[in-house]
Amino acid sequence: MNNFDDQHKPLIYSFKRFDNKEQISKSHSLVNICTEAIDLNGMQKEAFVSAGRNSSGWRIPTDESVQLRGEDAAPQPLALHNASVQICLLNQVKQIFKANQIESQKIAIKVDSYFNIKGSFYRGDVKSCLKDLVIQFDIQANLSEEKMSALALEALRKSPIIRAIRYPMKNTFSIKANGKKIKLPNSMQSGLEQVSDPLERIKALQNIIPENQSKNKILEKKVNSTLEPTKPGEIPVGLLPDIDRTIHIRGTGFAINDSENEVQTSFFHPLGSVFQYRSDLHNEDVSGFQAPSALTYHGAALAFCFMTQFHRYGSVNKIDLDALRIVQLTPFDLDPTNDQNLSFDTHIFVDGDFSDSIATDLVRMAHQVCFLHAALESKNDIHYSIQLNDVEIIHQNQLDK
Question: Domain of 208?
C-alpha cells in the first residue's frame, strides 16, 4: 500500500525530465547531488533529488518499520544506501567490461552493510558508525581469475560511492528556525549563505502528477516484515535509555542490460521487509534517465538518515518540532584520478518552540547519531570476495591491504 499520497502515484517517479538539447558540455568531472527533503505524516519522508538544472529529477520516499512506529510503506534510509552501493558497483563493472570488450552472462553483486549505534540519547553520548561493508562479486564470463581480480579491484576503486565511504569527507551545516537563522559554532557552520528554504519548491513538486512513467515499477515491496508493532506504552528500540545495537542490511542485485539494474534490500537484523529497486545508468544524465541512478538513491538516503536522527533526539528531549525540511548538497568527483578533499552541506529549516542553544544541540546530536554522516566522515574498511563462474576465487580480502 502506498501511504504517501492519495493520487495513485508510484512510490518513485520523475518530477523533471532530462533534455539533451539543453545539456551543457562538462569541462570537469565534479557533480553535485541536490536533495530537498521534507517530513510527511508519522515516520514518512520524501525527497526530490537531482544533479543539476539539466538532469532528471526523482521523487524518492522513505519510512520506518512498524517496530519503530512507521508504516513500513517504503525502504528505510539504510536500505536505500545499501541499494546505492550495489547499483554503483554494478555500473562500474559493466563499464569496465565494455571498455575491455568482455562479454558476460551474469553480473551480480551482494552487499552486506553493518552499522552500530551505542550510547544514550538522554545522556547525549549516543554515537553511530559504519562497522563494515562486505561485498561479493558474482560474475559469469570467459576470463582468467587474475583478470577478474584486477577488474573487481578497479571497480571498487573507481566507484564514487565506495570512494566516499573509504575517504573522509567534511560536513557543515546551517539552520533556520521559524525563519530565523541561528549561528552555529564555526567548526559546524556552512559558508553557503545563498541556500533558501525549499518549502514552497517542495509544495510545487508535490503537486506534479507524473506522466509517461515506466511500465516496470521502480520501487516495490516484495516481502513483508514479520516484526510486530511496538505495543502501547512500549518504548521503541531506537529510543531505549541505553542502546547498543548492530544493524545488518543485505542487498542483492544484478545487471539487466547495459543501462538498467535490479536490486533488492533486506533488513537482516532487525528482520525487516524486502524492497526491490530499478536503476538506470545514463552517460549524460547523472541522476538517471529511466530510473534513479546510484548517486540519486545515495542522496536521498543521506538526507533521510539525518532527518530521522534529528527527530529522534527531539522526541527524547520533548522538543517541539514541526515542518522539518532540509537541503543537502553532496559533491562527487567521477574521475577517480582526482584527489580532492570534498565536503558536503546540510541546510536545515524547521519550525517549533525552542531556543538557539537547543537548535544547536539538535544539529550536533543528529550529526553525531546519523549512520550515513558517520560513514562519509570516517575512513572505513571494505571487504570483498569474488565468485567467478560459480567458483570462489577471492575470499574476504580487505581493499586497503
Answer: 35-398
The H or E element that residue 368 is part of is: helix 356-369
pLDDT at residue 44 in the model:
93
CA torsion sign, 349 to 353 to 355 to 358? negative
pLDDT single digits (tens) 279-327: 999 988 999 999 999 999 999 999 999 999 998 888 888 888 889 999 9
Q: Is residue 1 part of a domain?
A: no
C-alpha torsion sign, points 283, 18, 161, 332: positive
* Cis before 229 (ω within 30): no
Residues above pLDDT 90, as percent of the chain:
66
DSSP assignment of 53-70, as one string? TTS-EEEEEE---GGGT-
Distance between the two ends of the chain, CA-based, in angstroms?
A: 46
Q: How many domains does the structure of the chain reveal?
A: 1
Strands 30-39 vs 243-255: parallel, antiparallel or unpaired: unpaired
Per the domain annotation, does 141 fall within a domain?
yes
In eight-state DSSP terms, residue 236 is: P
Going by C-alpha positions, the residue among 156, 149, 102, 167 that lies closest to residue 134 is 156
**For residue 6, which amino acid is it?**
D
13 belongs to a structural domain? no
Return the closest-CA partner of residue 84 out of 274, 270, 279, 282: 279
Closest CA to 225 of 76, 38, 359: 76
pLDDT interval class at 227 (50, 70, 90): low
Q: The domain that contains 57 carries what CATH number?
A: 3.30.300.20
How far is residue 295 from each of residues 57, 257, 330, measured CA to CA in Å?
Answer: 12, 19, 9
Residue 255 forms part of a structural domain:
yes
Average pLDDT score over the chain: 89
C-alpha grid cell for residue 210?
A: 507524473
Contact indicator for 319, 358 with CB cutoff of 8 Å:
yes
pLDDT digit string, tens, across residues 129-147: 999 999 999 999 999 999 9
Would you report the helix, strand and coil content of the chain in percent, each value rounded to 5?
A: 25, 35, 40
